[in-house]
Batch of 3 targets.
Target 1
Amino acid sequence: MGADWKLSSVDVYAQSGAAQKQLLHEVNHTFKAGQITLLVGRNGAGKSTLLETMTGLHSIHKGSIMMGNESLWIKRGRKERLNPEVTMKLGLAMQNAQSQWFAASVLEELRYSLKPYQVSGEAAEARMERALNEAGLPPEMLTQDPWTLSGGQQRRLSLACLLACEPEWLLLDEPTAGLDAVGIQRLCAVLAAHRASGRGAVVATHDLDALLPLADAVAVVSGGTVRAAAPAAAMKHAAAAPQALRVLAELHAEAALPLLAQERSGGAPWPAPSEVAAALALALERRSAEHKLLEAEQLSVAVHKAIQAAGPNDSSRSKQMMLAEEEAANVSEMPKEAISQTSGLQSTRFDPRALILSYLVLAASIFMQQSGLGLLLAGLATVLLLIPFRAFIRPWIGILRAYAIMIMIFCVVGGIGLEPLSFDSEKAWPIVLRFGKLFLIMMLGMPLLNLMTPYRLQRAIEQTFGWLGKLGVPIHSFALIVTLIFRFIPLLTGEWERFAKLAHARGKADTPLRKVPLKNVHAVLIPYVRSILRLAEQMSDALEARGFGYKKGKPVYAFRLRFDRSDAWLLGIAGGCGLGLIIIRSLL
């Protein structure tokens, strides 16, 4: 019998644009060893996040995750690392089976899964053969590319990769998706055998009819937290009733779901259309009220501070109060989308032409500095300008730190004299000046990808230089290429993060998340390039399907970019700072 999973007050956040988004909140739950627990809930409730958190693919901001007496996260020095004693006992099958593949064949995928367990030779061959047989895949499939398999076959291969490792815990995310009736029967047989051996499983699913007869417990995930759990063994309702209705009744008994009017009156347990509409209207009204309350609280704090600053004898105080009340009324009537756009941090806030022009002016003025005082003032101006966009700089802190360390190393190496051994600051200063200017220019450019979308950038190029098309210049093709480059950069980083995720989920790495272990870099480079080429091919097919590359008449645009007050302010501030730095350069 294995050990129980225990989650205590677990909070998980993820970076979402300029802010952090909470994924899990105060999760307190215990998953019993030797039992099959189903995770049920609406799409986006947090089932997949919960499974990935249990495997260490999300770092926890608060709380603890224990398997028996072993913690999932342990401290090594100043940083927390995954505990191999725990991760080697579990296996995760992700919701999207395609996101797990990177090797050239099924055989290599199975070998990669077995590598952390140091199983090789005849033992590995026996495990792989047994796993394929249990998953319902023929041995002839070992030479095939996983990407060429059907959706159901990929789902079975995902299960086979887990079975070959023989983990104590199976964590399965929508395992019946894409499976036929025979595949679902095999999955149920695998889960039953896994439980019979004293091991446990946690399964996130919407397919209650297929998996509920096997379940020992049901946990309801809602709003990023586990609200309630119901013992599936207690569901002894009419045998003829569909399984989904049995679990519905039990969840109602456990206060996991509210009773509907029909159920309270003894009628059918499914809602009438009118009740569904009423429930939706109530939910929308509650969400709108919560949003208005939050905005009113924020505005109230701002008004209170303004009144305190004005003083008790200010004659305009009553007028300020009236204006504040009027503004509060206006804010409460604004839709959420409009309020979010007033923050100045949205990708649609500024015209891409204003952003690029401001960046070029500031970069040129920084590059002109030739003195220590000029570089210092340029750095001060850069920091002040980036304060409103500091959230966009936070994900790049590691790169900035590494670049600063590289500058210091270059300065030390460049300033060292050997005969005699000494350090000459005059030799090191040019290095500081040149790399320091590049450092500031790089910092200014980091928020640009977040402040404009590729499509708006494409429209900016077409509106500004579209007249060149009359002269035979392929400006629309150039704009499309620029857009694709901007779209492909996130794909490159996202694909590398996928490989890092696989290194932790299947390779059992204990390095920091979103980083491929150094010892595995050489092994993933070729698969990474192959994956990028596959993404490029998919993008090419998508463009061809949408008609790009075919000669057509005058295009019709969905919108046109226009300069507004925000763009004028941005250009004015950038121009003022740039002019100031140029004047300082001429005076020094």
Target 2
Amino acid sequence: MILTVLCILALSLSNDVTASFRVEDVIVRFIVNATPVLFPPSRVSLQLCINYDDTIKLSRILSSNYLTHTIHNVYEEFEPKIYNDLEHRNLYVLDLDCDYATDILRQAHSKRMFVAPTKWLLFQDRKITIDNDDNANLTFVYDDSILEIFEDLAIYPDSDVILMRRFDDFFELLSVYRPSPQRGVIWENRGNWTIKNGLQMRTLDVASARRKNLQQTALKSCIVMTDPNTINHLTDFKDKTIDPVTKANYPWILHIVNRMNATISFEVTNSWGYRTENGSWNGMIGMLERREIDIGGTGTFFVSERIGVVQYIQLYTHTCSRFVFRRPLLSTVSNIFILPFQQNVWIAIAVFLILVFCLLHLSIKWEYYRDRLTESATYWNQLNPNKPTVSDNILILLGAFAQQGYSYEPYRVSSRIVTLMLLLASLSLYAAYTANIVGLLQSTTDSIQTVSDLLNSPLKLGAQDVVYNRYYFKSFQDPIRKAVLEQRIEPKGHKSNWMSIEEGVRRVKNELFAFQGEIGTVYQLMQDTYLEEEKCGLTEIDFLKILYPLLVIQVRSPYSEIIKTGALKLREYGLKYREEYRLYTRKPVCSSHTSFITIGFTECYFALVTMGYGILFAIIVFAFELLWHKR
């Protein structure tokens, strides 16, 4: 349908009616057989040397086939809206026999219109008729001079430019591209079409598969290093805790470039690249934006403000920066003295004590008044010389419940039953309570699971002092993350908690401390320096909320599809995982929970507080008793 355009074009190249009918039939056959394989666009921009009447006829044909189109029969500037929107739907058709064909090609070159996903279909009739000197006979010569212009055009491996040359009823299909600005034009024989045999394609491979040989093209890259000594250990797997992303990505770049049959040179910078105050970008991202390098040599995080500045390649480095800490003991964040029993159990115990108190009070009071009038009064007075009071009942209750003993001796059956019930219940509850306390003293808490929990926890916080951590910490606007930075990482009037990764890992081991750092490096240091029981309870909290680092290239890079395919091949062949497994340490396995639990003031905090309040209350009561006694 689309290449009905070719019919009009061919007719415009012929002057005799008989030839036009013959060519039209040939082109229609070509449309039916060839266009579904070559181009399926839905919008066409045509540059043809046809008159006004033929333009009207052509537009009617395209409209009848429901095809959006523009037709130009004179030289015009390309409108930006034509080639900037939905470029994957655009097909540009150009007759190379037009006088202004060269100007059109140069304009497309200057506006980078040969870059994917735009498509071009060029026509050339190799037979040009000229007169001899005697103006009597006609001869045929071939003129390929216009094809020399491709030596200077930006038609690189991602381009889709097809030249169709007509030899009467034979159509030759050629693709043209240049491996790089340093290399000359390469013509690919894509096949041919004839009436008898139809479309004969030499290959149906996509351009990235056909053009992956860049013929030793010199590419440029940039690697990010926070330590200058990294340049000496890019491939020997030494100092794995320093610049691990750079050391993992460097061999990946070499594999991809080797697959492309290219060479590469590296520049070194200490910054991934961030937007400056004047709106420009520095570091590796700035080099890609200014097209100073072809591919980024170190993976970078996927953030919204870099979209449109660079193009991300789906080749992840499985590492990230997170808060890592050891789950603290439950006793450091909770009052474990109320945790052995659930709330309902505590309520039941309180009801039980009230009931026992009432029964004990009644039984003791009845026992006292009854035995005063009998012959056993003397014996009873020997056991309990004083008249029982409410405070005595409370002390009896608390002494039995706390396993501390009491001075009262029950005499009658009823009081003995109540006291025995109290002692048995107290013994059972005490055994269960102390057993649970021992278990809770060795238990860790899972209550710290979010950034908000981390902010409100008793853990101290610190962060690895690297450029991207400082940048992202200060870029967050939500109140919780801002509070983490302002209150815990950079508290006013105190020393900031930016530190080396070695110091952070040491403090996680020895203190209630959470450290924000690159987890592969953190786990490697923990694997080397922690005891087996110290590797248990390690927990992560994602603070930055960003994806794994990815490789980046120029926006609309001519090698994007070749690099993407190479990245997929790295994963398929296992070369990607080889570097990661050797450079990145997974979370240490907890193989032994056996260890001695040291109980200190932190674990006994709530017990000490309770005792302190008890002592304070006793002093206050004692003072009131003294005042009462004096009066």
Target 3
Amino acid sequence: MNNVRVRFAPSPTGPLHIGGVRTALFNYLFAKKHSGTFILRIEDTDQTRYVANAEQYIIDALNWCNIPFDEGPGKNEKFGPYRQSERKHIYKKYAEELIAKGKAYYAFDTAEDLDFHRKDHEEKGKTFIYNWHNREKLTNSISLSKEEVEKRIVNGDNYVVRFKMYEPESENEIIEVNDIIRGNVSFKKEILDDKILFKSDGMPTYHLANIVDDHLMEISHVIRGEEWLPSLPLHIALYEAFNWKAPEFAHLPLILKPVGKGKLSKRDGDKLGFPVFPLEYKNEATGEISRGYKEDGYFADAFINMLALLGWNPGTEQEIFALEDLCKTFTLERVSKSGAKFSPDKTKWFNQQYMMLKTDEELAEFFVPILKKHVIANEMKQPLEVERLPRCYAPRNDNEEFNMEYITKVVSSIKERATFVYDFWDLSSFFFEAPTQYDEKAAKKQWKEDTSELMKELISVISTIEDFTSHTIELIVKEWITSKEIGFGKVMQPFRLSLVGAMKGPHLFDIAEMIGKEETLSRIKKAIDTL
């Protein structure tokens, strides 16, 4: 496939919904598969809904997702500018070209006039459609004389330019298009309205600007959401009116609510507790902050993998795809026609899978900022006895430095229980600080009348161990328990409670080895005194 050029063309009216991100992703994957170009175009013709920080949000979101555009605002502006508001001088010429060809016309109808006709039709049980049925009865350059039209324009009367969608007996009644995803789709022209192409404020509507820009930017494939499918006949008719070759079209299915009915919305996320935006977004007008996948702790590659499988499947059982693999595997022919149900739980599953694919060293680096925040906060409350935990935390000069080898071992021992990196602290805090309190239910169940005496004996046993490794500690402690002819639970459960503060954590003797002999003994003594 030669010279593939696709575009993602969002409106800067707010944060980028994950449905928009998926559209961008599918465009990106298609472009990269065919060694093509992925373009970002900002469609800001509707100035009434423009949000100042929305464009930068869109760019930041694409960059975080690792699907940056090849051409766009401020980057490789071969066909620039890439903001429609900066291209408005272009569109009027094309609107006038259509008028000159008899494919469009000036319409001077006021809002009051149109409202009157709508209400009149409603009273008669009909629907008002501005098209070939009534255009000659309305106030436009078809019903008015040439002189009257020129006079109105000179006088500065408000007007719009409408497209002449259908003319009886002079055109085919059916528009047929082969959609890459949906196959052959057809539309009856006679039931379609004469859409506005150019507005009285001097700005084009989406329909005209979209077609003109796609043509001038040499777009080869238009990959967009199915909500634009009803606009397809107009867009095809416009290409025909200009005598331009139309790009190929592919209309993506909706991302549905978790319950399966209806389009996924921000309200669904707010109600069920998951983000619908890639990045956190602050509404400058209201101060409302909307959650983002990045800030919620998701890996960008996990987020992208999840989105890729919403509406597309590779034809195999494989679910985990690196971005490079997606670029090689993706085809529009395997995109579903039907909507794809969003699953918050499946999204978390993807994140956990990607966590397991990362090295312990990578995860340790991610963990350090979280660890530093907790350790330093606790140090401010109660200074750490640095000699206690020399392996994990050792301030040097004025800089807090962490032993990455120790942190890496910690991460390795707890990562399988985590979904997000921010889970690490709750799963591993006992590796970095002694418990200050003990799980009440566990203490009541595990700490019996004779437990303190057993723990004192355990202290004596542990004190004699020279090779303080997990294997050796386990061997000696279990031999001692066996010699006493008591159940292992009578010792092991309160031992874990002493070191961790709760009945959780990885292999108990691994914990003891990692925090060291002195700290292990100290924690058992503290538990005896407290419990």
